[in-house]
Amino acid sequence: MPASPVCPCGRLGASRKPLAFAQCCGRYLDDFAASPAPDAEALMRSRYSAFVRERADYLLATWHASQRPPSIDFDPGVKWLGLEVRQHRELDVTHAEVEFVARQKSPGSPAGAPARA
Fold it and tell me: Deepest of 7, 59, 76, 79, by most Cβ within 10 A of its Cβ?
């Protein structure tokens, strides 16, 4: 039986090995209406995986309405290099913050920089 593809977000399981996509972000991307990401870190990781897999449907569904663009166009030739979650903290019952670095290489441009969401 072929191995399941590793999740692009890079989350490690209890064995310190990368989780399979289906056991990690895949469950949110494949059924986001019934299985939303349970916390801010999972949401950030799943959105990174959606960019890697060019899943505009998931990105648009998980973008806050006040900030959501009408559509998403993916740049051809982008290579996603990895996600590093530096910090995840709960601010209150309904708000959290995730500090992360999403690295990608576009033709003719440098790789990503740190961000906070």
Answer: 7
Q: What average pLDDT score do residues 15-29 get?
A: 95
Predicted TM-score (pTM) of the model is 0.86
> What is the tens place of the pLDDT at every residue in 33-72?
899 999 999 999 999 999 999 999 999 999 989 999 999 9
Q: Identify whether 106 is part of a domain.
A: yes
42/61 Cα distance (integer angstroms) = 15
Cα–Cα distances (Å) from 97 to 6, 12, 70, 105, 116, in that order, read: 25, 20, 25, 25, 7
Q: For residue 90, with 0-12 CB atoms within 10 Å meaning exposed, 13-18 middle and 19 or more buried, which class applies?
A: exposed
In which domain, by residue range, is 83 found? Answer: 21-116
**Counted domains in the chain:** 1
* Residue 4 falls inside a structural domain: no
Interatomic CA distance for residues 8 and 48, integer angstroms: 8
CB 80, CB 51: distance < 8 Å: yes
